[in-house]
User: What shape does this take?
Amino acid sequence: MTDRVARLTGRAVRDGPDGHPPRATLDDGTVVVVKDSSADPGAARAEAAGLRWIAVPGGPPVPRVFGADDVLLVTGLIAPGRATPAAAERFGRELATLHDAGADAFGVPPPGGPELAWIGRTRMTNRPHDGPWGDWFAADRVLPYLRAARDRGAVDPAGAAVVEAVCGGIGALAGPDEPPARLHGDLWSGNVLWSGDGAAWLIDPAAHGGHRESDLAMLDLFGLPHLDVVLAAYDEVAPLADGWRERVDLHQLFPLLVHAVLFGGGYGAQAVAAARRLR
Assistant: This one.
């Protein structure tokens, strides 16, 4: 692994990689994070493409990508800090800027990213869709994971029928049309790193073109410190459409079903409950 890190960074490795997350020190003293994706060949390149795509001027900072191949991703180390109201306000404004950078279509992958990508440890299809957003979201985000969750027993047939009914009527639930936003795509609190420089850094994206409310709904799903401050700052920069709070359950169907596929029935039950609230 040391030789591979040296090749990707263009520097000799002085120490490591070791620790959690695995870190290596280069010969110039730079400390880098080494992510091993050998269990999912190609995931490292996909993540690198996503990081580069969401690194927009004025957006949330992302770690520098030193290099990636089919197995390893080498990025810069983020100095840890703590969440503060000031950092949350900054994050809300920067996240609005990221979303406003846009995408060519719903479902489009980052430049250089694969059509068959990853979210967590499961696969995710990124292919352009002309819209409207609800049609794409149902076809390429909700229904594939509903089928997989049902097949593994995490959602029963009755629950699956509830989610399918929501997808069938999604046009009436989706809210006003919006252009495709540039999404992080897996924006739970663990992928937001509060740093010592007063910023919230983004890591581990499943980036694609989508609806901006999806990123915000995922922040809400697993909780984020000072989320109310983040949302207020975001709304000040890029006002959210009326009724966005009522659409949170809709946008959370996708991550809940992904978790049902990965971790089982508790998340499946949450997905069905969210779908029932939308009917």
Q: What stands out?
A: The first strand starts at residue 13 and ends at 18. Residues 1-77 form a domain with the Phosphorylase Kinase; domain 1 fold (CATH 3.30.200.20). The chain is about 45% helix and 15% strand.
